[in-house]
Amino acid sequence: NAGVTQTPKFRVLKTGQSMTLLCAQDMNHEYMYWYRQDPGMGLRLIHYSVGEGTTAKGEVPDGYNVSRLKKQNFLLGLESAAPSQTSVYFCASSYSGGSQPQHFGDGTRLSIL
Amino acid sequence: QKEVEQDPGPLSVPEGAIVSLNCTYSNSAFQYFMWYRQYSRKGPELLMYTYSSGNKEDGRFTAQVDKSSKYISLFIRDSQPSDSATYLCAMSERAGGSYIPTFGRGTSLIVHP
To answer: What pairs with residue B34 in β-bridges?
Structure first.
């Protein structure tokens, strides 16, 4: 039972390049989330999904897109990377929203030069 | 002012000390409260989960909620160097729907031998 798996673990991009971060969960959770974590800023919600085929904006959605084509996968895309998107990205999943604890992956460390 | 306030620390204590970590909040509708522990270069993991007011104990850890003061605490007894991590509080208004937990920024704890 792997829980929440994020790929890749590390990536360096040049400004303007695009990439997709993949999150996979094997717990049959309905809800999935993408956060970014920056020093002194805590976890900030980028986008989330309440079920297959649905997505919604979080606190800091600009510059990111997401897709949830399969229940177990949640993809985060950067169409044109900017240095301000240098961060550690965490994916999480939960059985439902609100009261249910989230299960986190170990993060993707992304540097934009 | 953020909905959830948490002192970032760092909090440095000697091994064996009792540690008190705290969060204050402004939304009186919060009723689900969680504490996560995050080791360096890892994702947050759920440590404690409580509903409404009162105390919950699990081994060396005690979570306390005081809804009248809008204040939650995590106590760690007989602290160990392995407890050195960042501790994040999270809280939510209700179950289900699209309610997403709100996180504090985290407190860095260092337990030195």
So the answer is: B49, B90
